[in-house]
Structure formats: structure tokens, C-alpha cells
Design brief:
By secondary structure, this protein is α/β, with parallel strands linked by helices. It has one domain: Decaprenyl diphosphate synthase-like (Undecaprenyl pyrophosphate synthetase, 3-Layer(aba) Sandwich). The chain is 43% helix and 16% strand. It is built from 7 helices and 6 strands, in the order βααβαβαβααββα. It has a 6-stranded parallel sheet with strand order 3-4-2-1-5-6, sandwiched between helices. Strand 3, helix 4 and strand 4 form a beta-alpha-beta unit. The radius of gyration is 17 Å and the shape is globular. The two termini are 18 Å apart.
């Protein structure tokens, strides 16, 4: 039985779901939040310690401005409404990515949310926001150089956004798209990848549990035989 500490998810298909069902991409983003809440509950039940959600990539700035504004307003509302639930359920929130381009309000909300949940230990949710893996690796290399450290695997990993977080055992991507989209490229070196046809709002707890069960039965060699 393979242990599972860390699951990473590319939550793809919100916009397509919204266009298909409600004629609005934003409706899909709103529906996707319900899936997030259900998967968080299932992760806690399954005693997973880390859940990394690809929320907004460095490439997502190319989307229409109205959609970007809606996404950030949705995130702000979620943080305001759910912060007490996060604390009550002992969930720690960590932001992965470059916060510089966010509004003053959002930056403060993110900072406060991280601070208020910093002592929680049941589940750590990493929100990948304005995140791009190539930028993360370049940033880590710059920090290694600035600290005058040797360029080696440990020093690079210690300066990634995910320092002190084990690499994911599982990556799930919904939305019937089979690519990594600049997500955790360093960390996914030996991760088992599950591509799901369902759009993110249609993905449910049973789908999640099936993947966990399938993973537990895999033989993982890590280069051995």
C-alpha cells in the first residue's frame, strides 16, 4: 500500500463547464468552488497532509480582464467567508507564487489568511496563485546564488515555493487535457499522473477516492526494477 501525503490538482474545465451548462464561463468558476470544498473534505478523511491546487497560472493573465476580475473576487469572497472554517478544521493555507501583481486588498487577505492558519496541522492547502514552475525554478536559482550556496538538488529544493513540502505522490488533471501546463515541473519528477476526462465541476469525491485507491496498488520503482 503506497502512502499518500501530497496530492496536486490541475482544476481544469471550469470555463467549458460554465459555457456548456450556464452559458457563462464565470458560472463554471463558481461551480468549481463546490468541488474544491468536497475534495478538501475527502482529503481530510483520507488523512492526506498536503493538497496543492493550481488556481491561477502566470499564463492566465492572457484571459479576458472581466474573467480575471471575477476570479479574484471569487477568491476574496472565499477567503473572507471560509477563514473561520479553515481554522476550525485545522487547515493551513499556503500561497505558492508571485503575489506582487495582486491588488492591495487581495495581498492583505492572503497574508492574513496564511498568518491565521499558520499553526494548523491537519491539512495544508497550497494555493498556486500567479504560479509558473519555470519562474519558480529561476527564482530558486537566484536565491541559491544570492546566498552563495552550491548549486545542488537540496539547495534548489530548499529555495522553491514548496520548501519543506514533500513532492506529490499524485497529480490529477481534470478536463480531458493531457499536459502539465507549467505546474510543479521540478516536483513532479516521480509523481503518478492521472488525467481525468471529467470537467472540474463534475469531478466528485468518489472520483477522487478511486484515484487514491488505484495509486495505493501501483508498484513504484523510482528507477529500480
Amino acid at each position: 500500500m503506497n502512502p499518500i501525503r501530497h496530492v496536486a490538482i490541475i482544476m481544469d474545465g471550469n470555463g467549458r463547464w460554465g459555457t456548456k451548462h450556464k452559458k457563462s464561463r464565470n458560472a463554471g468558476h463558481r461551480a468549481g468552488l463546490y468541488t474544491v470544498e468536497n475534495i478538501i473534505k475527502e482529503a481530510i478523511k483520507s488523512k492526506i497532509k498536503y493538497l496543492t491546487l493550481y488556481t491561477f497560472s502566470t499564463e492566465n493573465w492572457k484571459r479576458p480582464k472581466s474573467e480575471i476580475i471575477f476570479l479574484f473576487e471569487l477568491l476574496e469572497t472565499f477567503l473572507i467567508k471560509k477563514i473561520n472554517d479553515l481554522i476550525k478544521n485545522e487547515i493551513k493555507l499556503k500561497i505558492l507564487g508571485d503575489k506582487k501583481l495582486f491588488s492591495t486588498k487581495l495581498k492583505k487577505l492572503l497574508r492574513d489568511s496564511e498568518k491565521k492558519t499558520s499553526k494548523n496541522k491537519k491539512l495544508q492547502i497550497n494555493l498556486a496563485l500567479n504560479y509558473g514552475s519555470k519562474n519558480e525554478i529561476i527564482n530558486a536559482m537566484k536565491l541559491v546564488k544570492k546566498k552563495d550556496l552550491k548549486i545542488n538538488q537540496k539547495n534548489i529544493e530548499d529555495n522553491l515555493y514548496t520548501k519543506n513540502v514533500p513532492h506529490p505522490e499524485i497529480l490529477i488533471r481534470t478536463g480531458n487535457t493531457n499536459r502539465l501546463s507549467n505546474f510543479l515541473l521540478w516536483q513532479l519528477a516521480y509523481t503518478e499522473i492521472f488525467f481525468e476526462k471529467k470537467l472540474w465541476p463534475d469531478f466528485n469525491s468518489n472520483d477522487f477516492k478511486k484515484i487514491l485507491d488505484k495509486f495505493k496498488k501501483l508498484k513504484r520503482n523510482f528507477g529500480n526494477i
